[in-house]
Design brief:
105 residues, mainly alpha, 4 helices
């Protein structure tokens, strides 16, 4: 029962946060957004590369695998960023209480 309630709460909080920060996200943000899959990211990249090549420009790419990226982020930076983006204080406090005792690997 608890995992189900947690997933519902996670969905609600995620929606609240996205409503607040979506205007701050880059148009080329694909991760963790509904309807913005890795396939769309690849299509967008290919489109931009082909467009650049058609215009006689060069194309350089760098691929980075961010395996477990959140585990390597300083949690205090995440909290400060949420505050600076205008996420309501009660959500920031809730997230802080969730990640404050988590270990970074």
């Amino acid at each position: 029962m608890t995992p189900t309630i947690s997933k519902v709460l996670e969905s609600i909080v995620g929606t609240w946060i996205l409503e607040v920060v979506c205007k701050e996200l880059d148009d080329h943000q694909f991760g963790a957004l509904r309807g913005r899959s890795t396939t769309l990211a690849l299509v967008d990249a290919l489109h931009n590369w082909h467009k650049a090549l058609d215009e006689g420009q060069s194309v350089r790419t760098l691929f980075v695998d961010y395996a477990k990226a959140f585990h390597h982020v300083d949690h205090s930076i995440v909290i400060q960023k949420l505050k600076s983006l205008g996420v309501p204080d009660f959500i920031v406090r809730w997230i802080t209480s969730f990640i404050c005792e988590r270990q970074q690997l």
